[in-house]
Amino acid sequence: MSGDLLRQPAMKAPKSTLERSVAKKAVADFSEKFSMGDSVTVLKTGETGIVYRPADGLGDVVVQVKGVKQVMKHNRIKLKVPAAELYPPDYDFSIIFDTVENRKARHQMGRKFDPSVSITYGED
């Protein structure tokens, strides 16, 4: 009797009439939330930092806290003061984010060609 069950053709699964209405999440534009130079508070530690790079597509923001650049999620920081209120429109942020050696080298390169001068950038 069990041999008869094995010889029967396999049944096809019926077509489903259920349609899934998957609500596609709107791709959030995190880059509008923060801009370079914004003063932010790191919620975990309560420290104040400056936004170095606005959020990317995944919501990662690069924040400089106490001279160290750190990658944080946009929802882990809170805007304290926008950059528009802190700095004039034509402010050079390299004063905040670059080392003295890089600023000097950039100035030297702008004045004349010097093969011994180079600008090195560390990890963001």
Annotation keywords:
single chain, 124 residues, alpha+beta, five-stranded antiparallel sheet, 5 strands, 22% strand
Molecular structure report:
The protein is α+β, with helices and mostly antiparallel strands. It has 4 helices and 5 strands. Strands 4-3-2-1-5 form a 5-stranded antiparallel beta sheet. The longest helix is centred in the last third of the chain and has 12 residues, at 100-111. The model has no long low-confidence stretch (mean pLDDT 79).
Beta-strand segment tally: 5
Name the average pLDDT.
79
Helix percent band: 10-25%
Ends apart, CA distance between termini: 72 Å
Strand fraction equals: 15-25%
Structural class: alpha+beta
Contiguous runs where pLDDT drops below 50 for at least 5 residues: none
Q: Number of helical segments?
A: 4
Largest sheet: 5 strands, antiparallel
Widest sheet: strand order? 4-3-2-1-5
Order of helices and strands: HEEEEEHHH
The gross shape turns out to be elongated
**Rg from C-alpha positions?**
27 Å
